[in-house]
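Deviation from plan, reported transparently: flavin-adenine dinucleotide complex.
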Amino acid sequence: MDVVVIGAGLSGLTAAAVLREAGASVQLLEADAQIGGRIRALRDPTSDHAVADLGPTWVWPNHQPVVARWLDILGATTFEQFNEGDAVVVGYGPTPLRQPLPGQDGMVRIAGGPSTLIDTLTNRVGQINIRRSAPVTEVSEDGPDHMAVHLGSGEIITAQKVIISVPLRVAAKTMHLPWASSALIETMRGMPTWMSTQAKAVAIYNKPFWRDDGLSGRIVSRIGPLAEVHDHTGVDNAPAALFGFVSWSPEQRRAEPERLRLAILEQLSDCFGKTAARPLDLAIQDWAMNPRIVNELDTLQPATHPYIGPANLRQPLLDGRVRFAVSEASERSPGLIEGAFAIGEKAALELLGTDL
Ligand SMILES: Cc1cc2nc3c(=O)[nH]c(=O)nc-3n(C[C@H](O)[C@H](O)[C@H](O)COP(=O)(O)OP(=O)(O)OC[C@H]3O[C@@H](n4cnc5c(N)ncnc54)[C@H](O)[C@@H]3O)c2cc1C
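Because the crystal trials were delayed, the predicted structure below was used instead.
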């Protein structure tokens, strides 16, 4: 095996696809039964088509050249985030306000959602080269030229090179890295995983009925339980959907899941009328309950906007045998889809530029 890539999120898949394209033999190991990491879709149970995003939704290709290039490479198209009409603004006065709110410059959605990127990259890497439900517990040296990757099952895979595409705090806690200095482990522990404490709610409807009332589908609320809501209707106006970020704490969400569902439906109904209380489906994806993504340090500390981490996260380790490639390690747009593409591609090209 030339390279083992650990973690099949967007960074790991991008690295694996670049390596495969160059003819390297690659094994991509994913702890979860599903691949995609923080990119996940609510899927139609019959057709398996992605109907809504449970992780990221937006990209900014006008300002993100790596995203623009990779959308092109993967044949993905984008469309505008719907923002016509009034938003409902709650908690900023005695009664809810209706007013238009500006959108963000250049913010667009990917037709079919970001999970289409995962599907296309998976095909490029080849299912045969991807193992699911294969958590890595240790990465150690195997002589001067090779690395040994230990799986939870006890199996050991040897490879010339290893790319670690796992959230840095999760890797520091769950993987034994005997060669890593304490300074490196401290740096990893210091890097929050972007959005890892968030929960996202998606409500699916027959039609985007709020648009008929001159509403954009947007809510900004100081009261919650959804702090912000957006129209999430698919390209070609189907399926109709709304999504919102949950403002309850992870503890509250865990303690009272049914009350959360009822509170979300009540809030949507208060803002958009009774039809909103009867969605075809209401899905809540709680990222703070996924130990492959979140770490207790993320839940204990207030969320900060992603920042560029120290350079030792991007340096080749063990004479270039090991590299990190997860969005938070990127110098460009850390924490975002742009960061995941950039660091995955960079790590793979750097490996190929050595002696692979
Ligand atoms: C709710 C939400 C909304 C977001 N919104 C946006 C947005 O609008 N725009 C944007 O640009 N970005 C957004 N993001 C961020 C974006 O999703 C991430 O930047 C990107 O998906 C990170 O990909 P990654 O591959 O670097 O990491 P991850 O997706 O975290 O992948 C890491 C993988 O490693 C696996 N793993 C963990 N431990 C092990 C182990 N021991 N062995 C093997 N595998 C392991 C995990 O299961 C996971 O599959 C959002 C994220 C969330 C959660």
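The first strand starts at residue 3 and ends at 6. We consider this an acceptable substitute for the interim report.
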